[in-house]
Amino acid sequence: MEYRIEQLYNELTKIITPDTVFACIGAVKTTSYLDSVGPQVGDILKKNGIPFIYGTHDRPYNGLTANGMAKMINKFHKHNTVIAIDTACAVSEEKLYKIQIEKGRISPGAGINKKLPKVGDYAIKAYMMLREERDLIINNNLLSSDKCVFLINKTDEMVKIISTAIIRAYKDALNKPLLDLVEIRAHNAALYKLL
């Protein structure tokens, strides 16, 4: 796990600054635990003093709140880098239980056919299920799944990898001189990594 944290951290140090905004998408419910990566990461980031977090257990960034939260991010953080974090459906087993970081926006709810405002300059996606398994979230069937314990453990592992890498990169960003921060903002290379 430490190797995967290090890989993600190395990519995040190129884009995270002290004013980065994190849109942590999903919901924390026992029945749809797979969809809780975003808000669990949001809770951990908030507890570690990272200031701009949208999406936690208490205030989730989900289908009911996505429009309002997207408007708030656009209104108050026009010039900030936004990193969106969400659970995603893998199209192949090769991506399953991997983390992808890429330049571009996330469409919250796309895996379950919802159309919500896109968010983020960068996206961190945790591939927790195959596309054909998405009914585990849609129909709240996780608890009846024969893979229940395995999936909960995998979800917890993803949360730990993502939150640890972000916290390390954020702490580094706080200690960088201003010139480095300007250079990082000018960095426009697309990221596409599977960890």
Q: Topology of this structure?
A:
Layout: H1 2-12, E1 21-24, H2 37-47, E2 53-54, H3 66-76, E3 82-90, E4 99-103, E5 122-130, H4 135-138, H5 148-174, H6 178-186, E6 192-194
Parallel strand pairs: 1-2, 1-3, 3-5
Antiparallel strand pairs: 4-5, 4-6
Helix pairs in contact: 1-5, 2-5
Structural commentary:
The mean pLDDT is 85. Helix 1 (2-12) crosses helix 5 (148-174) and helix 2 (37-47) packs parallel to helix 5 (148-174). The protein has six helices and six strands. A six-stranded mixed β-sheet has the order 2-1-3-5-4-6, with helices on one face. It is of the alpha/beta class and 195 residues long. Strand 1, helix 2 and strand 2 (53-54) form a beta-alpha-beta unit. The termini are close together.
